[in-house]
Amino acid sequence: MCTEVFHRFYYGWVIVGVTSMALFAATATAPPVFTLFIAPMGQEMGWSRTLISGAVSLGTLVTVPMLPLVGRWLDRYGARRVVAIGGLILGASLISLGWVQGVWGFYIAFGIGRMLAQGVLRISSTTAVSNWFIRKRGRTQAILNVGRSVGATTLPLIAYFTMRTMGWRAAWMVIGVIVILIVVLPAALFLRRRPEDMGLRPDGLPPEVYPADADSPVPSPVAEPEWAVKEALRTPALWLITGAIAIRGVAAPGVTIHLMPFLLDRGIDAAVSALAVSVGAACIGVGGMIWGLLAERVRVGYLLATTMVSSGVAIVILLLTHSAPMAFAYVIVSGLALGGSFTLEVIIWADYFGRKSLGAIQGFTMPFIYIAMAIGPMAAGLSYDIAGSYRIAFYAFLIGYFVAAAMMVAARPPQKTSPSRSHSS
User: Fold this and answer.
1) Which is more confident, 82 or 206?
2) 106, 269, 345, 379 — which has fewest CB within 10 A?
3) What is the model's pTM?
4) How confident is the model at residue 219 (pLDDT cuts 50, 70, 90)?
5) Which H/E stretch holds residue 134?
6) In this predicted structure, what is the pLDDT of residue 423?
7) Distance of alpha carbon 208 from alpha carbon 397, whole angstroms
8) Mind listing the domains of the chain with CATH numbers?
9) 3-state secondary structure of 208
């Protein structure tokens, strides 16, 4: 009986579990965690908000040269070694933040950590799951996003309470140890490249549903597109999607990195502000589940446009925030929308261009997105340091979200000229 159950169990769910822990760890350098460190580090070290947020921008920029290499490595070898080694170095870099004495030490340590969290763990995790699921890609990417949400919910609370008892240096060290414990060994033991490497098929379905041979005469009831990188680059959809996600990449971290100091400036208590950050992160997980399930029934581009409009509405709420209830209203609306964006942005690449060159396509497009992500935190910091307010930057982000939504509506699924290989929308 146990043997029969084991054979029925699809190994792809192990991949989802392990990569969810990797995404949990990747949030160690994400805005919900980093925003808690801005005020205490600035007070002790005498650094401006622009200077501190510059570490996020630098870490994001140094990620860019790695992305094409990581994408090709994932297509060829899979995520196991990449995630295990990346998790180890990420944990070590976070621990080293507990000893920084100057701005360059801080930039180097955090920059390396950010590079590994976003350029290795994030892309490796989402690509690995997309390789194991097709029909259930929406729900599995949503489950994967829960790992990110749990990390963004719990790590800020761990950081906050560690700071209150032992200071911000100890908080970085504790987070680094957690990263090493939950990533390195599980990744090394359990991650695998694709189901075909284990004699399986995507979604755990039988061979007649997904033939192992692309030239098999057995028809597949699910039309999976197969686009090479050069082919994908000639489609308007790729550039519209890249541009829209890049705009979202400017706005989302630009607001979230500075959320904690923004709420403090508005007179909201530090403990309440920290709780609001965690509630928003929890809503990211809920939003990811909702939008991920919808992605199995509605075109992903339309859903992404809706999440970006919702993110714009959230910024309007934030600009009107002067009380705790408004702060929680913002984080709920923003979290639900961002959870959808994070999940759908992964799904759309696989849905529109297939699994064949998924890592390479993302490796080509993600540098543009990561450069955009480096702009937002610095822009918001400069807005505050020069004008004494975040309003200029936040209004720009608001407009950007609506532009991105229009681009996503225009990004229709690409079609190949050959009927036998066209992708049905």
Assistant:
1) 82
2) 269
3) 0.69
4) very low
5) none
6) 39
7) 48
8) 12-197+224-414 (1.20.1250.20)
9) coil
Q: How far is CA 370 from CA 63, 65, 132, 214, 297, in A?
A: 7, 10, 25, 34, 29
pLDDT tens-digit profile of 331-366? 999 999 998 998 898 888 888 887 777 777 877 888
Token duo for residue 235? 């489609």
Counting Cα atoms < 13 Å in the Cβ hemisphere of 132 gives: 28
Cα 178–chain centre separation = 19
SS3 190: helix
Beta strand ranges found along 229-323 (DSSP E): none
Concatenating the DSSP letter of every residue in 26-85 gives HGGGSHHHHHHHHHHHHHHHT--HHHHHHHHHHHHHHHTTHHHHHHHHHHHH-SHHHHHH
Number of Cβ within a 10 Å radius of residue 275: 18
Q: What is the CA 374 to chain-centroid distance, rounded? A: 14
Helix (H), strand (E) at residue 217? none
Distances (CA, A) of 261 to 158, 257, 270, 274, 292: 18, 9, 9, 10, 32
Q: Half-sphere exposure (CA, 13 Å, Cβ side) for 154?
A: 16
- What's the helix, strand, coil split of the chain in %, to 5? 80, 0, 20
Ramachandran area for residue 269 (φ above 0: left; ψ -120 to 50: alpha; else beta): beta
Tokens representing residue 262 in the block:
């923004």
